[in-house]
Design a protein that fits this description.
mainly alpha
Length: about 70
């Protein structure tokens, strides 16, 4: 799922980028558990902190289509 979201983030279509951020939100809500007992999946943690926060969020903040529709 993470690989699919990465592809969608890099699409030229705003619908794909919109779907990627909404899919990421669902992924984080359902599977990003920060409790000490379960921990966080390393691949998901890397995706959230390095792909979404560091790479994609700055791009989406200046994307005219994405900002208007989200």
């Amino acid at each position: 799922m993470i690989d699919l979201l990465k592809v969608m983030y890099n699409s030229s279509r705003w619908e794909d980028r919109y779907g990627a951020i909404n899919g990421s939100i669902l992924l984080i809500q359902k599977f990003y558990d920060t409790s000490r007992e379960r921990g966080v999946d390393p691949a998901l943690k890397d995706f959230v902190w390095n792909t979404i926060r560091a790479t994609q969020l700055p791009i989406l903040m200046v994307d005219k289509e994405f900002r208007v529709r989200n």
